[in-house]
Design a protein that fits this description.
alpha+beta, Cytochrome Bc1 Complex, Chain A, domain 1, 13 helices
Length: 395
């Protein structure tokens, strides 16, 4: 950097906060318990859909980790009336998207299409959600693919580090499991998948969020006609063991001979998504390590040159959470890197944060939030999180 480029040391003044325009959402609960949230937004002739269930990977049977992921991977691979190829052809014909997935807390079936094809895509969403056939050949294929993916993951230092941290921090809580095992994949049968689907995919355990160029009254009648006969059932319980408490630091090593670098993850038990401390913690995390302007990055990357990037993460889920700091560093500087990590962690815990850092962090957070809501997908993601975590409607 030349003297003429000294301006690079000084961040530009933050721009004024952008006004947020959030279209109004209407909410209705059907007689079977299905909650329907509709946002009319006619700026583009597009519609996005997200059907979310309050049952995720944490609800897998203890002996079958990964069952939810296998189930969601099979939803679009065949129904009682359509083959996998027919589903793909129909989605392609409309230029639409159709997918399903899960995280630790909830499962989703999502789609997007031109408003012209709203009826068609709703038919597909209903079919893959309520009438999946789970063909035996597709079950075996996804099991084999998952086994291969698991072998590849186990060759990655970052996966091994995350696996160890999750086990240590969460203990007996199901969040401690981040992947299936070869044994659980072998034991998973089509019958177990069918039974699991029937017990977890319940209308009274779901929220259907739609945003786009629609009319609420017309769309709601259509949804009632498609999902009205879907029967409710007994809801899954979040009766999980609490993560273990700890009063002192502990070190855990995963030996991987020949590694050119060390994966460092420092973690502790955090907060849930509904904690009143969520936003103070989010602000702290932004100052500490959320981006390339945060303390960890500036110290370990910019000042010391130990790594390409050092960050923190705030993982607040429905029933537990973690706070983590991590980096991949050159093996010879592992000890020095740990020293700087603990220096920054102790500093943010014991010393007041400067007014400038607080202002910059708030400006960053209030700047990125409106951007996330500018697209239908971003708005739906926010609404789904509100419903899945039981947050206030105006959150």
């Amino acid at each position: 950097m030349t003297p003429e480029e000294s301006f690079r040391h000084q961040a530009p003044a933050p721009l004024p906060s952008r006004p947020i325009h959030i279209p109004r959402a209407s909410e209705t609960t059907l007689s079977n318990g299905l909650t329907v949230v509709i946002v009319e937004d006619s700026r583009l002739p597009l519609v996005s859909y997200r059907l979310a269930f309050r049952a995720g990977d944490a609800h897998d049977p203890p002996e079958l980790p990964g069952l939810t992921d296998l189930l969601t991977g099979l939803l679009t691979e065949g129904t009682e009336s359509l083959t996998s190829r027919q589903i793909a052809d129909e989605v392609g014909r409309m230029g639409a998207t159709l997918s399903s997935g899960a995280n630790s807390d909830y499962t989703t079936v999502g789609a997007s299409s031109l408003a012209t094809f709203s009826d068609n895509i709703l038919d597909l969403i209903t079919d893959v959600t309520c009438n999946p056939s789970f063909p035996e050949n597709e079950v075996e294929l996804i099991k084999q693919n998952t086994k291969e993916s698991l072998r590849q993951q186990r060759a990655q230092p970052s996966f091994l580090a995350t696996e160890m941290v999750s086990r240590v921090v969460f203990g007996e809580h199901p969040y401690s499991v981040i992947a299936p095992t070869l044994e659980s994949l072998h034991a998973t049968t089509r019958e177990r998948i069918v039974k699991f689907h029937r017990s977890k995919f319940l209308p009274n355990n779901a929220v259907f969020v739609i945003a786009g160029d629609v009319r609420s009254d017309v769309l709601l009648k259509r949804i009632e006609s498609l999902f009205g006969d879907w029967q409710p059932g007994e809801l899954p319980k979040d009766d999980f063991p609490a993560p273990p408490s700890r009063a002192s630091r502990s070190a855990y090593l995963v030996d991987r001979p020949g590694s050119a670098q060390s994966n460092i993850v420092i973690a502790n038990t955090g907060i849930t998504r509904t904690s009143p401390d969520y936003f103070p913690m989010l602000l702290m995390h932004t100052v500490l390590g959320a981006n390339a302007s945060s303390r960890l990055f500036m110290n370990l990357r910019e000042e010391k040159g130990y790594t390409y990037g050092a960050y923190s993460s705030l993982d607040a889920r429905r029933t537990a959470g973690t706070v983590r700091a991590s980096a991949e560093v050159r093996t010879p500087v592992t000890g020095d890197s740990l020293k700087e990590f603990f220096y920054e962690l102790d500093r943010i815990r014991t010393e007041p944060v400067s007014e400038k850092e607080v202002i910059d962090a708030k400006s960053y957070l209030t700047g990125v939030f409106p951007l996330r809501l500018e697209t239908q997908e971003g708005l739906i993601d926010q609404l789904v999180q509100i419903k899945m975590f039981g947050l206030p409607d105006d959150y």
